[in-house]
Amino acid sequence: MAESSDLAAEAVVPLAAPHAVLARLARRLAEHATVTETVVGALIESKFGTARLTASATCLRMRAEGHSDTALSVMKMVLAEHLVELADDAVPDFTWTGHDASRHDLPYFRAMIVAGAEQVTPHMRRLFLQGDLYGLDQDGLHVRLLIPPKGRRPVWPHARADGRIVWPSGADRLAARVYTIRGIERAKRQIAVDFVLHPESSGPGCRFAQTAQRGDPVGVMGPGGGMPDAVAGRYLFLGDETALPAIARMVEALPASAHATIRIEVGDPDEEQPIASAAVLDLVWLHRNGRPPGTTSLLEDAAAVLDGSAWGTGLQVFAGCEHSQARALRQHFAARGLDRKALNIAGYWRQSGQAEDI
Ligand SMILES: Cc1cc2nc3c(=O)[nH]c(=O)nc-3n(C[C@H](O)[C@H](O)[C@H](O)COP(=O)(O)OP(=O)(O)OC[C@H]3O[C@@H](n4cnc5c(N)ncnc54)[C@H](O)[C@@H]3O)c2cc1C
Q1: CA of 242 to the centre of ligand 1 (A)
Q2: Are residues 60 and 116 in the same domain?
Q3: Pairwise CA distance, residues 198 & 207, whole Å
Q4: Confidence class of residue 3 from pLDDT cuts 50, 70 and 90?
Q5: What residue owns the CA closest to ligand 1's atom 23?
Q6: Residue 355 within a domain
């Protein structure tokens, strides 16, 4: 499959009010990309590539360029999804010409199977997923697992000619949950994913981990996220057990010159895991000791205690935990004036209500 910097595709979409739709599209895309007005339309620059939008009296012309098959496919999908949502009238069927025009699979999707499982700690189960590892490199941290209905032949998503994704529905509906790639074993064509077994849940992610048999199918979309900036010298990692795989993977990749302060909240000492790294580590495990996950202020309290330390310049903060805990951490660091660019704080799960299905 191609990996190039100049893969391009074009689509011309007849519309009643092309200029108005272009303006709306540009405004929407500015939430995630850099948008520059041009004489004839707009230039969109994102981490996946660029798009040039131009409007005439009767149609909107979109030219997408991507750094790879995957990037181009994402560009086409994003443009098409937003266009269809933002146009006043029904958008007539349109197709992309150019690179991969006749391709209907998603280059960032892999159909994989469960190749094995092992218990890491009492509440953490590792599954080995085997298949095509295309696009899963050392930098991509997370994937979206697509879990098909048990015992049913899976129907996977594919791309329409206009770039949008077609999701299976009804009895074929997939459950989608985000997980971290804990490790990659290229020789075996495998990734390892560590699942928290949260006992009160009947969530599809947790259930899949508990019941998976060798050969069970699972879809893997992505990757997303990224490893921390290699030039920072100091790192602060805060997280509960759902972020433990991400923290472990990031810390393992740090160079010997790095200093990492790590605070991880787990149920009890049996849930602790060794984390090996060339970096200098200050690692403390925080125990809930019977309190339910997502209900403590252990991480925020730990962050407050650390505030007096001389962090120096180039501190990067990563945090992953329950949504309300993540919000509290964001407010904590914002109140202390830390540069937003140095903060990567994410809600990994929700105490109230489950993650969304597709
Ligand atoms: C970027 C990212 C990376 C992630 N990486 C991992 C990972 O490597 N390993 C991992 O296990 N999780 C990871 N998560 C978190 C995981 O996606 C959520 O925990 C998800 O909700 C699990 O789905 P589920 O189907 O088991 O439960 P859901 O159907 O989403 O939820 C069902 C019920 O379980 C509760 N619940 C969900 N998760 C937990 C939990 N951890 N503890 C207690 N109760 C819970 C919910 O509040 C709900 O009541 C990650 C999330 C993100 C955003």
Answers
A1: 7
A2: no
A3: 10
A4: very low
A5: 205
A6: no
Highest average pLDDT, of 88-97, 144-153, 200-209, comes from 144-153
The DSSP call for residue 227 is: P
What does the DSSP assignment read for 281-317? EEEEEEE-TTSPTT---HHHHHHHHHTTS---SSEEE
Rounded to whole angstroms, how far apart are CA atoms 121 and 127? Answer: 13
Among 198, 220, 250, name the best residue to mutate to test ligand 1's pocket (greatest count of ligand atoms within 8 A of Cβ).
198
**CATH number of 46's domain:** 3.30.310.50
Strands 142-147 and 124-130 come out as unpaired
Determine the structural domain holding residue 40 and report its residue range: 7-98
pTM for the model stands at 0.91
Please tell me the predicted confidence (pLDDT) of residue 311.
58
Mutation probe of ligand 1 site: the residue of 141, 150, 345, 349 with most atoms within 8 A of C-beta:
349
Q: Does ligand 1 come within 6 angstroms of the Cβ of 318?
A: no
Q: Which of 206, 210, 227 to mutate to test the pocket of ligand 1 (most atoms within 8 A of CB)?
A: 206
Instruction: Tell me the C-alpha distance between 107 and 327, whole Å.
Output: 34
Shared domain check, 253 and 274:
yes
Ligand 1 pocket member 324 (CB < 6 A): no
Q: What would the two tokens of residue 154 be?
A: 């899976």
- Name the domain count of the chain: 3
Shared domain check, 82 and 189? no
Q: State the pLDDT at residue 17.
A: 92
